Amino acid sequence: MIIDIHGHYTTAPKGLDVYRKAQIDSLDNPTKGTINVTDDEVRESIEKGQLLQQKSRGTDIALFSPRAGGMGHHIGDARVSQYWSETTNDLVHRVCTMFPDNFIGVCQLPQSPRVSPANCRDELERCVTQLGCVGCNLNPDPSGGYWVDPPMTDRYWYPIYEKMVELDVPAMIHVSASCNPNFHGTGAHYLNGDLSVFMQCIVDPQLFKDFPTLRFVLPHGGGAVPYHWGRYRGIALEMGRPELTDFLMDNIWFDTCVYHQPGMETLLRSVPIDNVLFASEMIGAVRGKDPKTDRYFDDTLQYIDKLDFLSESDRKKLFEDNARRVYPRADARLKGK
Amino acid sequence: MIIDIHGHYTTAPKGLDVYRKAQIDSLDNPTKGTINVTDDEVRESIEKGQLLQQKSRGTDIALFSPRAGGMGHHIGDARVSQYWSETTNDLVHRVCTMFPDNFIGVCQLPQSPRVSPANCRDELERCVTQLGCVGCNLNPDPSGGYWVDPPMTDRYWYPIYEKMVELDVPAMIHVSASCNPNFHGTGAHYLNGDLSVFMQCIVDPQLFKDFPTLRFVLPHGGGAVPYHWGRYRGIALEMGRPELTDFLMDNIWFDTCVYHQPGMETLLRSVPIDNVLFASEMIGAVRGKDPKTDRYFDDTLQYIDKLDFLSESDRKKLFEDNARRVYPRADARLKGK
After folding, report:
1. pLDDT in tens, chain B (337 residues)
2. CA A47 from chain center: how many Å?
């Protein structure tokens, strides 16, 4: 079985954009409102999109969440974020209900800059216990590129960690769109978020002492972390930390959203195999085909297939076993089938 | 000959810290002041530091600039930055005068958040024409982690580019210390700066049309860029840009400050060999030895030595020819010897 742990509903019907636009047009007076999207539209958007790709690439099931760039936590206040999160999470739930063999839900959270993440506990609980979500996306920078909230190792974030631990769900650490013109979204802000949080965890090792079962998934192959594994090892050792392999690897995982052969090789030669989760981010940041190969850039299986140093056991970990361990609620679901 | 294009005066005598502390203690009333550092102190700091390493590693000459983390452009106003830059540039000049066979100067600039880089032209000209500097360090985020100035492709930056082009010197795009607790300096902010500016250049291709001979050097192996070369190719192609190799490679170079074998291999398998410049950042972000090899993490030659796909011609480009091309004033100096 091949589990793709990183997929977003980037192909949602236009009714979702209409809903969001109306919401943004009345930020001063937010209401929940209603979304006008039919089941047929949902079905078509998936069948022609992610499901088609899943089948043609030969992957089995995707952990599926609202579009990351669309979370837009910097837009409006916490109520706006609340209504928007409920709406997009419900929409993803419709996908997962329609295609239960192909998609398992992961939720976004109603974060807002400078608002305690305690306000996200109820929505996380609702999504996990009522909608069957197996994880959440947690934005380390709800300001969208100005980084005004504390580092993720700060006690500021503890309320949501308590709920994650209680529900036994991991968080993918995933920023949303950037409203800072210095940072292109998928080409800069995303990667900066990944690597910055990894370094935060080196700087302050107390977090995972306080929450030994807390689990972070770093998307986009961990930003620059595997490429600079030597740099991080060196910095960590100088700070008196243990070897990275003896230090953060009970709590941090990396996905395989890296879109060329040398990059994928670096990821899997650097990070322990137990800490890498197969993913494609399909359909996501890079939607086109590589003109040199006529294959999709984000068809990450092609790069993994060529790594002859991976054993069959390694591949099973990468494609399935690690994901079942990091997302125990997904494991339970799959076992129940 | 092996030219290391990325070295900082991180071992400066304590008189420099005393000077800076006095300056920071009177930010409201900045004066130039005087620095109390003897020639013997300078000599000792180099002979026991960078020069010792140079000799033991077998490199020949370093392009040498003030400590990047010490630039601190967010501290005080533009006058503070002016005095501080003059002082540190003069100190580096003393090193280069004392050890002319081993160090060639690169200057820092008196940047300040929200102050036009036009204010840096005079210091750049002074350093190049009077102190013999062959390049400069240009900070894309003088705010130290809050990114309040425009992207480097914005016309805001053009005044300093005009002077760089006139003097025929490149800029290493190098942030300084971070005062944003989300970003560890050398473990996050540095890498974020590198990759964010690369992406800015993809977003706005006008910059290098307006300045076809402008040259940027991205330190720290380009942040995450080579690791995500496929991602950047894909994003660029989707934006209607040419292949990266036909697009930015007349204007952007990457250094080799990558501290483990797989990372170095990714760099040199991804970026064209004409666009990589040998460097170590010694003595810099990672000062220790790898306990697994008993060699310094930042002794980057060890990783390059093992890349058997590099030809002799490739190595000559990497170690010498590319640097002479990007830093023509260094080339002229070396030829004059």
Report:
1. 999 999 999 999 999 999 999 999 999 999 999 999 999 999 999 999 999 999 999 999 999 999 999 999 999 999 999 999 999 999 999 999 999 999 999 999 999 999 999 999 999 999 999 999 999 999 999 999 999 999 999 999 999 999 999 999 999 999 999 999 999 999 999 999 999 999 999 999 999 999 999 999 999 999 999 999 999 999 999 999 999 999 999 999 999 999 999 999 999 999 999 999 999 999 998 999 999 999 999 999 999 999 999 999 999 999 999 999 999 999 999 999 7
2. 22
Which ipTM value was assigned to this complex? 0.98
Q: Which position has the token pair 């990114």?
A: B147
Rounded Cα gap, residues A111 and A80, in angstroms: 10
Give the C-alpha separation, B49 to B161, whole Å: 33
Q: What is the pLDDT of residue A216?
A: 98
Collect all residues of chain A within an 8 Å Cβ-Cβ radius of residue B186: 231, 235
- Type of residue numbered A142: P
Closest CA–CA distance from residue A213 to any residue of chain B (Å): 23
A contacts of B229 (beta carbons < 8 Å): 260, 262-263
Q: How close, in Å, is residue A152 to chain B by CA atoms?
A: 8
Task: Give the integer Cα–Cα distance in Å for A269 and A261.
Answer: 12
Instruction: State the alpha helices, DSSP H only, in chain A.
Output: 14-25, 39-47, 50-57, 78-98, 121-129, 158-167, 190-203, 206-210, 229-238, 261-270, 301-305, 312-316, 322-326, 328-336
Contact assignment for A234 to B263 by CB distance below 8 Å: no
Radius of gyration of chain B (CA): 19
Which residues, in sequence order, are CB contacts of B6 under 8 Å at separation 6+? B62, B63, B172, B217, B219, B255, B257, B277, B279, B280, B281, B284
The whole-model pTM stands at 0.98
Residue B67 in tokens: 């400590």
Report, as residue numbers or ranges, the catalytic residues of B: 281
B285 contacts: CB under 8 Å, gap ≥ 6: A231, A234, A235, B186, B187, B190, B220, B257, B298
Tokens representing B24? 């920071």
Beta-ladder partners of B296: B289
Do residue A195 and residue B196 have CB atoms under 8 angstroms apart? no
- Clarify whether A281 is annotated catalytic: yes
Across the interface, whether the CB atoms of A224 and B229 are under 8 A apart is answered no
Report the alpha-carbon distance of residue B61 to residue B219 in Å, rounded. 17
Nearest to A147 among B149, B182, B202 (CB): B182
Q: How far is CA B93 from CA A255, B125, B127, in A?
A: 47, 14, 9
3-state secondary structure of B292: coil
Cross-chain residue pair A270–B291, CB shorter than 8 Å: no
3-class SS at A270?
helix
Do the Cβ atoms of B234 and A145 come within 8 Å?
no
DSSP single-letter state for residue B317: I
Choose, out of B173, B228, B268, the residue to mutate when testing the contact with A (most A CBs < 10 Å).
B228
Instruction: Residue B277: name the closest of B307, B313, B316 by CA.
Output: B316
Q: Minimal Cα–Cα distance from B219 to chain A, Å?
A: 12
Shortest distance between the Cα of A290 and any Cα of chain B, in A, equals 7
Contact B231 A140 (CB under 8 A): no
